[in-house]
Write a structure and sequence with these properties.
With 452 residues, this protein is an alpha+beta fold. The chain has 15 helices and 14 strands. Strand 5 and strand 6 form a beta hairpin.
Length: 452
C-alpha cells in the first residue's frame, strides 16, 4: 500500500512540475540571493487586500523600505541586535531573583486549578515557573491544536528551501498542483473546489473547508482531501475552522519526496532532522500507527500519551502512520518554551554567526501578520498562519483546553502553558486570562518591562 501511494505521489509531483508556475505572490526567504517577488500583506484589520505601501520585498531589493537586509522582524528590533537571544541548544538559564516570587502567587486570585504547568521566559531566561504538585514537568503532554501553529514552521522552511522538480514552491500552490493524481472521486461535485485550495488558505483557515470533532482528519491522503465539509458559502473563502485534518502532513511528505524517494520524510522525521536538533531537543518518542484515533476516542482520556514511547517530543499518527497536521504533537512545557523562543528570535537558534537560521525570519514575519479576522476565543482578533493576535505585541498559538505558546515581542517574553481539560468544556477564557495576567507582570528590571 505504501509503495502504491509513493508511486502515485511521485507521478503526481512529476505532473505538478509541468503544471506549476511562479506567481507574484510567491514566498521566498529574504536571505536567498536570488531575486524575489514582492509579497502583498493584508491591511492591519486583516480583511483588506493591502495597499501598495504595505507591500514588502523580502529579498531586500531596491524597492524595499526596510533597507538592505529587508524589513527586520520585530523580534530583532526589540531585542536590539540580538540582545536577549540565547543558544536554544542549551538549557535555559534561571533568573533566581525573579524566581524567588512564586508565579502562581503573583496571579490574581481566581480558580487556577486547571493549570498544570507554566514557564515564563524573558530575554531567554526563566523568570517564572509553576508546576502543580501532581504533575511531572518532564512528562510530555498533548498540545492539541497548538500543533497547527508549529507545523507551519515546517511549511515555511520547506517553501523557502524546496522545489517541486525544479519549480519553486509557493504559498499559492494549489492542492491539485501538489497531488494531481489523488483527487479520484470524479463524481463528487466538490472535487474542483477542493483541487483549487492553496497552502496559504489552509494556513489561514480560509480554504472553505470546514470540520469539527465529528469530521475525520484522514487516515489516508484521499480521505484527508475529501473528509472536510464544503458548504454552499465556502466559495466566499472567509474564515472557517477546520478542526482536524491531515492534508498538510501529506504536503510535507510530498515536498520532501520531490527530489527522490530516499529523501521522503513524514512530519516527525522532518522536525527531528531539520528543526528540533537546533533547539537541543533530541529525546524523540514514537507513537504507533493509529495512535491519533486511540488518543481521541474518549473525552475523559482525551490526548492520552500512554501509547507513545518515552521522549520529550512525540506525535500521534493516523492509520497509515502519518502524523496529525492539526493536532497530535505531544511535548514537555520546556519544549513548548523553546519553540516559542525560536519564534521570538526570528527563527534563529542562537545569537551571532554561529546561530542557525532554522526557519527564515521572513516566514516568522508572515506568520505574525494579520491575514484574516476570525472569531476567536479572545474576541474579534486577527489571525496569521495558525497564530492569533492577543494584542498589538502578543501572538499566541492555542490548543484545546489551554495548551498555549504566547510571545510578546515588546517584553521579549515567552509563556508556555499546559492545562487540564475540564469537564465537557475547555477552560478557554481562564487560560487566556492567565496569559494576559502574566504579560502584565514585571519580572526582570529590563528596558522591556512594563515599569520602565
Amino acid at each position: 500500500m505504501r509503495i502504491l501511494f509513493s508511486s502515485l505521489l511521485i507521478a503526481s509531483l512529476t505532473r505538478a512540475a509541468r503544471a506549476a508556475s511562479v506567481s507574484l505572490d510567491e514566498y521566498r526567504d529574504h536571505y536567498d540571493p536570488a531575486p524575489a517577488a514582492a509579497v502583498e500583506f493584508e491591511d492591519a484589520t486583516g480583511v483588506g487586500g493591502g495597499s501598495g505601501e504595505e507591500e514588502r520585498n523580502l529579498s531586500g531589493s531596491k524597492g524595499d523600505k526596510g533597507g538592505k537586509g529587508g524589513k527586520a522582524h520585530k523580534a530583532s528590533k526589540h531585542v536590539g541586535l540580538e540582545d536577549g537571544f540565547v543558544d536554544l541548544s542549551e538549557d535555559f538559564e534561571r533568573d533566581e531573583t525573579a524566581l524567588a516570587q512564586p508565579l502562581i502567587g503573583r496571579l490574581p486570585v481566581r480558580d487556577n486549578s486547571f493549570l498544570r504547568a507554566a514557564l515564563v521566559l524573558e530575554n531567554g531566561k526563566i523568570v517564572g515557573k509553576y508546576v502543580r504538585a501532581d504533575v511531572n514537568v518532564d512528562d510530555p503532554r498533548a498540545v492539541h491544536s497548538t500543533t497547527k501553529g508549529l507545523i507551519s514552521l515546517a511549511i515555511g522552511k520547506l517553501i523557502a528551501e524546496g522545489r517541486l522538480h525544479g519549480v519553486p514552491l509557493r504559498l499559492d500552490m494549489s492542492l491539485e498542483e501538489i497531488f494531481p493524481l489523488n483527487f479520484l472521486d470524479l463524481l463528487d461535485p466538490t472535487t474542483d473546489f477542493r483541487k483549487r485550495v492553496t497552502i496559504r488558505e489552509l494556513l489561514t483557515m480560509t480554504s472553505g473547508l470546514r470540520g469539527d470533532l465529528s469530521t475525520p482528519p484522514g487516515d489516508s491522503l484521499p480521505e484527508a482531501l475529501y473528509s472536510p465539509i464544503v458548504h454552499e458559502d465556502s466559495a466566499k473563502k472567509e474564515y472557517s475552522y477546520l478542526m482536524d485534518n491531515n492534508i498538510l502532513s501529506y504536503v510535507i511528505y510530498a515536498i520532501t519526496c520531490s527530489k527522490d524517494l530516499w529523501h521522503c520524510k513524514r512530519p516527525i522525521q522532518y522536525f527531528a532532522g531539520s528543526i528540533l536538533p537546533s533547539l537541543g531537543v533530541t529525546g524523540i518518542g514514537s507513537c504507533p500507527a493509529g495512535s491519533w484515533n486511540v488518543a481521541h476516542e474518549n473525552w475523559s482520556d482525551y490526548g492520552n500519551t500512554d501509547a507513545c514511547s518515552d521522549g520529550e517530543f512525540a506525535w500521534f499518527t493516523n492509520e497509515e502512520g502519518f502524523e496529525g497536521a492539526t493536532s497530535g504533537m505531544t511535548m514537555t512545557v520546556n519544549v513548548m518554551a523553546k519553540l516559542g523562543q525560536l519564534y521570538l528570535q526570528g527563527g534563529k537558534s542562537a545569537p551571532g554567526p554561529g546561530g542557525e537560521q532554522v526557519v527564515p525570519e521572513s516566514w516568522i514575519d508572515q506568520t505574525w501578520t494579520p491575514h484574516v479576522k476570525p472569531p476567536t476565543i479572545v474576541g474579534d482578533n486577527a489571525g496569521g498562519f495558525f497564530w492569533y493576535q492577543l494584542d498589538k505585541d502578543t501572538w499566541f498559538s492555542y490548543g484545546l483546553g489551554g495548551q498555549i505558546i504566547a510571545v510578546n515581542r515588546r517584553l521579549n517574553r515567552v509563556v508556555a502553558m499546559q492545562s487540564d481539560l475540564v469537564g465537557e468544556e475547555e477552560p478557554s477564557q481562564p487560560s487566556i486570562a492567565v496569559i494576559r495576567d502574566i504579560m502584565e507582570l514585571t519580572f526582570q528590571l529590563s528596558p522591556y518591562s512594563f515599569d520602565n
